[in-house]
What does this fold into?
Amino acid sequence: NIKRRRISAAESAHLKVSCLSDLPSGILAHAASFLAAPSRALFAVALDGNSAVSTNERSSAIVGNQWSILDFGEIEKDLAAKLNDDDIEKVLLRIDAVNKVKRLKLANCVNITGAGLEPLRGSLIIEQIDLSLV
It folds into this structure.
């Protein structure tokens, strides 16, 4: 049973949230739970800035661990079209794709040359990479 309560100025003074990444990981993970899987991973990468290889509790809480299928067809076409190899590489690193992803679908990711797939090198579980445009 969730109850709402008003937070007084005195209670909220210690929070000092100046940007999204300052929020507690539980709040960020809850917000991310409403996103499609690829969007959750992109959200975690954005929150962590350029530190794509350093995993931490917040990122793990946001991205989760169910990554047998990573389907970029689940996100808006316009967003998928803007993604590049660097973006894909950061997502693959963040979710530990080399050990988790069996099927990667890059539908509508028209700016991908293949360089961003490097984190999958040596994967023993990858079964399919779909590079179709639709």
